[in-house]
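Protocol step 4 of 6: structure prediction from sequence.
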Amino acid sequence: MTDVDRRATVVLPESRTSGKDQHHSHDPGADTGRGPGRWGDRVPSPTRLALLCGLLYLPFIGLGYGTDIDITNILRSGESILAGDYRYSRPPGAFPYELLVGGLDRIGGPALVNLASAAAAIAGLVSLARIVERNHGARAGRIAVIVVATQPWFWVAATSLGDYLFALALLLVGIDAAQRDARIAAGLAFGLAVGFRSTTCLLVAAYLLAEVTGRSVRHPDGTGDRKWRDAFVTGVGAAVVGAAMFVPPWLSVGQTTQFLDNQLRTGDVLVMLARWGVKNAAFFGVIAIVLLLVRAPVLFAGLDRFRSLVMVRFAVFGGLVTELLFLRFPWKPVHLLPMAVCVAILLAVSPRTSNRLVAGVVASQLALAVVSVSIAEPDVADAATDGQFAPGLTRGVVVNDIDCRLDPPFAGDWPDLSTPEADFAAVDLFACQARSWRAGEGPSPLPDDS
C-alpha cells in the first residue's frame, strides 16, 4: 500500500484502494489544511490540533490520582510487582498497566502517573487524526479530534489514574498501523491494548470484522483481495501478544483460571436497563443527546457509506459492542469512552456535517464539563431496586472531578496502602464522582470491575 504524499499536493485524490478495502472516500477539493490562500492555512492540521489539545489536560495532572474506585487496587498491584509478589488489581488483571503505575508512582507519585495518562490521551488523538485525515481529509480529521478531545469523560480520564485511555490509544495506534499495512505492528498494538484492558478484545474484533466485511478490491500489486489474509495475520498477532499479557495473573493464582472470575452480579433486567440509560445520559449529556437526535439525519448520512468505508463499519460495530458490554456492566460512565470515538468518526465522515453542528456538539460537551442535567435517582445508591424521575442541575463532569480532588477529605497524600483507609478513600472519591449524574450520598463499595 502506498501513502498519499500530502506534502506535495494541495488536493488529495478522490480515492485510494488497499488490499483490504477502499478506506478512502475523499472529495476532490475538500479542505486538506494545506495550500496557500486556503481556509486550512488559518487552522492547525489535525495532528497539530491533537497535540494542542494536550494543553487542556496538563493543568490537572497535579490534583492527585483522580476519582476512580480502582485506584487503591491498582496502586497495590503495582507495588506487588515491584516487590516480586504480583497480585492483580481486579480480574482478569491488567499487568502492563499495573507495572507501569508501579514504576511511575515510585518515581514521581500521582503527578507522573497522571502525566502518563495525558500522554496516552494525546497519542490516541494523534492516531485518530492520522486515520481520519488519511481517509477523509484534514477537515474530517479536525472534527474527529475536537469532538473526542472535548468530551468531559475523556478529559477526566486523561488526567487521572486509569487504564482506559491506554487501551483506547493502543487500539487507535493499531488501526493506524493496519491501514498502513504494518500488520505485525498492528497485531502488537492490538495485543497490548487487550493487555491494558481485557474488554478491548471486542473492539479489536470489531475493527477486524470491519476490514473483512468491505467490498472486495484487488491489491495494487495485481494480487487478489488480501483482506482475509491480512485480518488473520493481525488477529493472530493480537491474540498471541494479548494472551501473553495474562500469563502473570494466571501464574499468580497457581496456574488456574481463578483470575477470570470477576464475581460481578447481574441485577434485575429493568434495573440494569435503567443504569445503562442514566449513565449513557451522564456520559453524553442531555444537551448533546438532544442535539444528536435532532440532527440524526447527519449521522445517517455517514452510515450510507457503511459498505464502502472501513471506519464507518468500525464505528458501527465498535459502538454496538461497547453499548452491549455496558448494558451487562453499567457501572462507570468512563467505560463508554469508545463511544466518543465512534460518534466522532460518524460526524467526521458524514458529508452533511456542518461547522455549526460541530460547534454545537463541542459547546454541549464543554457545558457538560461545567454543569450536568441529572434525570433520575435510585432508591439505594448502587444497590437500586427502584428509582424515580428526578430532573435537576448538578456539577458538571470536570468541575465536579476537580472539586472532589481538591476537597480536604480527599486531598493530600494517599492513605497507606496496607490500611483499610486506602480502600475507603477510593470508594469515597468514586461516590464524589457520582455527584455529576445523581444527587445523594453516592455508592456503597462495589465489586472490582474490569
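Step 5 (inspection) to follow. Residues 86 and 197 are 17 Å apart (CA to CA).
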